[in-house]
Amino acid sequence: MLEKFKEFLKTPSAHGHAPRQTVALPVGDYPRMALHAPPPPARIDLIGIDLDGTLLRSDNSIKPDVLRAVKRATAMGVHVVIVTARPPRDVNGIHEALGLNTVTINFNGALIYDVRQNKKLQHLSIDKDMAKKMVKIARKIEPDILLRADIGDKWYTDKFEGSVGSGNAHVPDFIGPLDAIMSVGVTKLMFVAKSETIDKVRYMINRKFGKHVDMPVSDKRLLNVVHHDVEKATALQWVAAHYGVKREAIMAIGDAPNDSKMIQWAGWGVAVANAWPEVQDLADAVVCSNNQGGVGMAIEEFVLKER
After folding, report:
1. For 230, left (φ over 0), alpha (ψ -120 to 50), or beta?
2. Across-strand partners of 105?
3. E strand segments, 134-267
């Protein structure tokens, strides 16, 4: 199933929608702009939403209009699912603020988590010995590179110099030697450094372990390393089956390259205006930016209007 899905994503028919067209649409309190799409081909019953750069504003807050739109959608029976690189601990407060009762997709899909039951539904991890070797490679290139190892919903590191990762407001659960940290498989490794250092580390890890790991891009100063089969699109497919929702009834919203396949796979793919250019090119619709409430705009126009 997984291999067939990967092959499907490579094909031109993966989108299967009509060519985009520009339609000028003023929507609620959102900025007047052009939406590059006709209406969705089907009624949307599930929305997969990225957090950083998409649902959240630059100050990590949620625009009130977006909050209202999400709550209206959930009140109408739409499954709103958070799809993020963040761990559960950095998502639970947002999940509660939005009033959601759905599962969350964390670590770019390495973990699917039931918030209400505090339970892992799906979990893919990196082999512990491979993880140690990758850390040695990174430290050889830059001895002071910062490391964060997430194992489930716990954060481990061998040295701590403040917040590590987008939106993180926590401290590590454990600070100590790598051998003590990596005694089991690692959900996600994250390295933090200048972009030029990250590029060098990415190249060497890909050269030695590219067949075994994936390195989704969300920020040029971060290197996220996960199991090779981890992908937001694959996780969203699992969640859709969990809720009994067909692909054509799914809308995915994002901004960064790690959202690309999710946007491409979903029945209706949406990019915010601040999204990377290559992500906008894959989307069926481009809405206003995260700071202007693009997620709320997408929900108002493509979900609520169709109900």
Report:
1. beta
2. 83, 112
3. 146-151, 154-157, 174-175, 188-192, 213-214, 222-227, 250-254
For the domain covering 2-123+231-304, report its CATH number.
3.40.50.1000
**Residue in this structure with the two tokens 């100063």, named with its chain if needed:** 221
Using alpha carbons, select from 270, 300, 298 the residue that is nearest to residue 284.
270
- Residue 264's pLDDT is 97
Domain locations along the chain: 2-123+231-304, 128-227
Query: What b/e readout covers 226-253, taking b as 16+ CB neighbours within 10 angstroms?
Result: bbeebbbbbbbbbbbebeebebbbbbbb
pTM of the model: 0.81
Q: How far apart are the first and last CA of the chain?
A: 33
Q: How far is CA 267 from the centre of its chain?
A: 17
With bands split at pLDDT 50, 70 and 90, how would you rate the model's confidence at 17? very low
Percent of the chain past pLDDT 70, that is, above it, reads: 85
C-beta separation of 274 from 255 below 8 A? yes
Residue 141's pLDDT is what? 97
Residues 31-57: tens digit of each pLDDT: 545 555 678 989 999 999 999 999 999
What number does CATH give the domain 128-227?
Answer: 3.30.1240.10
φ and ψ at 231, to 5 degrees? -165, 135
Q: Rounded distance, CA 218 to CA 106, Å?
A: 13
